[in-house]
Design a protein that fits this description.
Elements lengths: L2 H6 L18 H14 L7 E7 L5 E7 L2 E3 L2 E7 L3 H8 L2 E8 L4 E11 L2 H9 L3 H9 L9 H14 L12 E15 L7 E7 L5 E5 L3
Antiparallel strand pairs: 1-2, 1-5, 3-4, 4-7, 5-6, 6-7, 7-8, 8-9
Helix pairs in contact: 5-6
Bound molecules: flavin mononucleotide.
């Protein structure tokens, strides 16, 4: 693909609006409405989100994870605590999440503080994951350099023998959940002529949310 093609690529965003009257007091209500809309429109992986962290060298890092719950504690995802992101969150427990629902011309950015969920919750969720995913979580020393693909397949096979299918696979001690408790949530709806709608919610000391309209 040459640069000319990239310069010609653009979409006019015309399918929605985010009016002040559409923005409820709680950003969770708006987020839930947008997530349900993404599911209803059969967007692929509507719960996928980019998790941005602060790297140990001070430069940013980002990768995709799946939202697995949204409750009073915030936005929950599961991963390997000894992965690169795990080490980064241990050092700097602050992160941002970005949801992109391209077909709905919407983006949501969430910023806040991240904390680990109790191990009992990891065990509960791990138990309902498919067998192959459970073996994968044991087999993967996530983010480590490995010799080759065969090494990984061999490790998975050893673990299939250790934990045969049909029997309960224990949750690895290094695997678990995080909750990001938001301090800010910004909703972006694409509009015609790049005059997009942006509404940012900022959490107040009393727990309420202040709304601001941002310039696109
Ligand atoms: C659609 C999608 C969903 C993913 N979901 C997860 C997830 O929920 N948890 C996870 O640990 N990795 C998930 N990954 C893999 C991560 O993006 C990443 O490669 C991995 O967690 C290692 O990241 P790290 O080395 O920065 O720690 C997903 C990747 C994609 C593309």
């Amino acid at each position: 693909m040459n640069t000319t093609d990239l310069q010609a690529m653009r979409v006019s965003y015309e399918i929605g609006e985010l009016n002040d009257s559409d923005a409820p007091e709680s950003p969770f209500d708006l987020f839930t409405g947008w997530l349900k809309d993404a599911v209803a429109h059969q967007l692929p992986e509507p719960n996928a989100m980019t998790l941005s962290t602060l790297g140990l060298d001070g430069s940013p890092n980002a990768r995709t994870v799946l939202l697995k719950a949204l409750d009073d504690r915030g936005f929950t995802f599961f991963t390997n605590y000894e992965s690169q992101k795990g080490n980064e969150l241990a050092a700097h427990p602050r992160a941002a999440l970005t949801f992109l629902w391209t077909n709905r011309q919407r983006q949501v950015v969430v910023r806040g503080v991240v904390s680990k969920l109790p191990f009992s919750e990891a065990e509960g969720y791990f138990a309902v994951r498919p067998y192959g995913h459970q073996i994968g979580a044991w087999a993967s020393e996530q983010s480590k350099v490995i010799p080759d693909r065969e090494w990984l397949e061999g490790r998975a096979e050893e673990l299939r023998q250790k934990y045969p299918e049909g029997q309960a696979v224990p949750c690895p001690p290094h695997w678990g959940g995080y909750a990001l408790e938001p301090s800010e949530i910004e909703f972006w709806q694409g509009r015609r002529s790049r005059l997009h709608d942006r509404i940012r919610y900022i959490k107040q000391p009393d727990g309420s949310w202040r709304k601001q309209r941002l310039s696109p």
